[in-house]
Amino acid sequence: MAGIPIIINTGLLFNDKKYLNQQEFTTQHANTYPNHDLLPFLEAVSLDLSTLSISEIKKLVVGSEKDNQELMLAMSADKRSGVRDIARRLRRANAVMLAEVNRLEKMFVYEDNLRASGYYPVAGVDEAGRGPLAGPVAAAAVILPREVWLPGLNDSKKLTPGKREALAIQIKDVALAFAVGLSSVEEIYQENIYHASLIAMRRAVLQLTIKPAYVLVDGFRIEQLELPQKPLVGGDGLSASIAAASIVAKVYRDHLMENYHELYPEYGFNKHKGYATPEHLRALASYGPCPIHRAGYQPVKIYIRAQESVGTA
User: Fold this and answer.
1) What's the mean pLDDT in 118-125?
2) Is the alpha carbon torsion for 19, 22, 27, 30 positive or negative?
3) pTM, entire model
4) Alpha helices in the chain (DSSP H)
5) What percent of the chain has pLDDT above 70?
6) Which of 38, 65, 190, 265 fits a 20 to 30 Å CA distance from 30?
7) Which among 205, 207, 204, 185 has a CA at the least distance from the CA of 196?
8) How many other C-beta atoms lie within 10 A of the C-beta of residue 66?
9) Which domains occur in the chain, in start order?
10) Is residue 20 exposed (0-12), middle (13-18) or buried (19+ Cβ within 10 Å)?
11) Would the pLDDT of 27 be above 70?
């Protein structure tokens, strides 16, 4: 082999010739090092870690891989497997972080395009609770600042309850504005769930303390809203603002159903949040519907009729 590439502060030194970076080196020495990976061949680096313990090296590692490039190279070339393991873990963690940064950037595409067209601020809107047999439908509207770091931000349905709770707190802390709107079980019965959901969405937007220039909404156009808007099918996985709204709406409604559990503990609303789980259906069969059950939904209708027939017998 032709020699050993040496890392120096300003680049690489190989066979007495200086290269500015690894790319320049591997371009000229592709045949010598075909895998374009210098690390297996490093024998010397400008940073000497040999006098430091593994625990001391761990304390040196702060910030991103870019900030620690020299340290990362030194750890990767260290003779101790424990030090090399730290470097490998850091590289994996940094790769995950970079992928998350790129994913979140893509979730701002709609907001960025609207801003480039002169629309700012942009609100995202979504609802939670169309499917349950009990409780109101909730909607949230959120206006996010552009420069925001919310790792894990996504469609609320893809998140664990704990992650939703944590993100809801972060979203409220950083949002330029957010608001929640509700449609009651009576409105759901009178208007149907589709229109009741849109009413809740409109209420959320109108309660924002900052008037949005444009609204991105998950699924359907909001009726009687005199603002420019764009419905996005699956928007809670495409737009950061809609994803934030989906989380705020879901967490708000979950807390509401937990409060209803205190009034109607026999139904287990704190666990299933009103959805048609076997536990909920058994409670309905045993106790009949309570005031927050949706009278227009099956099988709630069946039990209401059964109660009515007993009352008239």
Assistant:
1) 98
2) positive
3) 0.76
4) 22-28, 54-60, 69-77, 81-106, 109-116, 161-174, 185-191, 193-206, 240-263, 269-272, 278-287, 300-312
5) 81
6) 65
7) 185
8) 8
9) 6-106 (no CATH), 109-260 (3.30.420.10), 266-312 (no CATH)
10) exposed
11) no
Residue with tokens 């297996």: 40
Sheet holding 137-143, edge to edge: 177-183, 137-143, 122-128, 214-218, 229-232
Half-sphere exposure of 268 (CA within 13 A, CB side): 14
**The two structure tokens encoding residue 203:** 């209420």
182, β-bridge pairs: 138
Q: Mean per-residue pLDDT for 103-108?
A: 94
pLDDT at 2 over 70: no
pLDDT-derived band at 67, boundaries 50, 70, 90: low
Dihedral sign for Cα 248, 250, 255, 257, please: positive
Separation of alpha carbons 48 and 66, rounded Å: 18
Confidence of residue 269 (pLDDT cuts 50, 70, 90): very high
For CA atoms 223, 225, 226, 227, give the dihedral sign: negative
d(CA 230, CA 242): 11
Distance from C-alpha of 86 to C-alpha of 302, rounded to nearest angstrom? 62
